[in-house]
Design a protein that fits this description.
Layout (H helix, E strand, L loop, with lengths): L3 H15 L4 E4 L2 E9 L6 E6 L6 E10 L7 E7 L3 H16 L4
Helix pairs in contact: 1-2
């Protein structure tokens, strides 16, 4: 079984790169998520990493607030060893969303 502790160094590296803050709990349960500011201002996106299960992990990128009321979401699932590449894909997706024409 993989725990968040085994994944935290990958997550923390991305949080540091983005200048965000890592949140480690939601509703009293372990969680891992952080926010990415949007362009233009006032938009906000979130990347969350689901609890590891049997060596697999899920990464979700989604809009929290957009200026054009878009509801954007994409999910990746793979082996825990692929977490870094899934986080890179989530960041690239958010960067694409930031460039959309509203």
């Amino acid at each position: 079984m993989t725990s968040y502790a085994e994944l935290d160094h990958f997550i923390e590296a991305w949080v540091e790169t983005t200048g965000s803050t890592l949140f480690t709990e939601w509703a009293g349960k372990p969680a891992r998520f952080f926010y990415i500011p949007g362009t233009p201002p006032f938009e906000c996106f979130q990347i969350s990493v689901g609890p590891p299960c049997e060596g697999r992990v899920t990464v979700l990128a989604g809009s929290v607030d957009t200026n054009d009321e878009s509801e954007l979401e994409r999910t990746w699932e793979g082996a825990a060893g692929q977490l870094d590449s899934m986080l890179a894909a989530a960041m690239a997706t958010i960067e694409t969303w930031k460039q959309r024409q509203g």
